[in-house]
Amino acid sequence: MPRQLRDAPCAVCWILRQPARSVAVALHDQERDPRVPRDRAGARLYVADGNSDDVAVIDTASLAVVTTIADIGTRPWGIGISPDGRKLYTANGPSGDVSIVDVASGKVDARVAVGGSPWGIAVAAPK
Phi and psi (nearest 5°) for 87? Predict the structure, then answer.
């Protein structure tokens, strides 16, 4: 049975966590929805899964989970991507930090302690 991602906005409603790594989602105008980060080509969506402490990378054509980025931090909920698409950021509430992920390698570059319980990320383009 699919499990709803509580942190996912309307753009991604359901994800299946089965061995086949298949996804059942409802995509609502992903081209304009800034709440679900995607790569510059629009080929990949990044969905924080706080229940498993990872980020699912979803192929928008096949709706398959192509990989997961593990060891993000404790319960990543907020997620954002840099304007150039090279870095992904997650707000990890219980661990009180923000992870910086290299999108190309799918590895966490750093975890920055910010204190409190960060739950959201806002990424702005440089001026």
Answer: -125, 140
Query: How far apart (Å, rounded) are the C-alpha atoms in residues 84 and 63?
Result: 23
Write the CA distances from 38 to 19, 47, 78, integer angstroms. Answer: 24, 9, 14
Per-position pLDDT tens, the chain of length 127: 233 444 444 444 444 444 444 454 545 444 445 557 888 888 888 888 877 888 988 887 877 788 889 989 998 888 899 989 999 999 999 999 999 999 999 999 999 999 889 888 888 877 7
Question: Backbone phi, then psi, for 64, in 5-degree steps?
Answer: -100, 145
Q: pTM to 2 decimals?
A: 0.75
**Do 15 and 49 meet the contact criterion of CB atoms below 8 Å apart?**
yes
Q: What is the CATH number of domain 3-113?
A: 2.130.10.10
Rounded distance, CA 100 to CA 41, Å? Answer: 21
| Residues whose CB falls within 8 Å of the CB of residue 76, separated by 6 or more in sequence, listed in order | 48, 49, 50, 53, 54, 55, 90, 91, 92, 99
Every domain of the chain and the residues it spans: 3-113
